Amino acid sequence: ASGKLIDVSIGKVTLGEGKDVARVFSLAFRTTQFEPTDWRPTKGDAVKLTYTTKEGRRGTVLAVNKVTLVKAGPDTVVSLASPAQGEVTEKGRTAFQAKLPGGQVVRFNVSRKTEHTPTGWVPAVGDKVKVEFRTEPALIGFSLVYLADKVEKVP
């Protein structure tokens, strides 16, 4: 099946396949594959799905085997390269959000191991930063997590 994602929720995507045609597909935590691997479905993306039908407790389920990105939507982060530069838009204890030059907003998780330059500096809203990071699939759910290894203040 192919079309545009009109809704993305935990474990499910709704695919619009044409005028007034939409189907709900289920994502499986361990078996659904994503192409590219550093992307996760977002509302507005054009995708191609391969799926099988399975009998569930509540009837027939369309179980997705593989989701392939055809064209990224406006809110999609695809192949974000490390390091990335941006401006901090929101700050919390364990993460901060940065708006990148392309207009995308990305959440970077920080830990005790995250290196800050200058030493002792902590990003604040409005600061310009350069972030070296790595991505990992989330432990719970179907998203990606951006883990900051080094955060540097940019003048």
Give me a quick take on this structure.
This protein is mainly β and 155 residues long. The protein contains no helices and 12 strands. 0% of the residues lie in helices and 58% in strands.
Could you characterize the architecture of this molecule?
The protein has 155 residues and is mainly beta. Helix content is 0%, strand content 58%. It is built from no helices and twelve strands. A five-stranded mixed barrel has the order 1-2-3-6-5. The protein has a five-stranded mixed β-barrel with strand order 7-8-9-12-11.
Total E-strand runs: 12
Strand order of the largest sheet: 1-2-3-6-5
Strand residues, percent: over 45%
Query: Main β-sheet: number of strands, strand sense, barrel status?
Result: 5 strands, mixed, barrel
Helix fraction? under 10%
Low-confidence parts: none
Question: What keyword list fits this structure?
Answer:
5-stranded mixed β-barrel; elongated; mainly beta
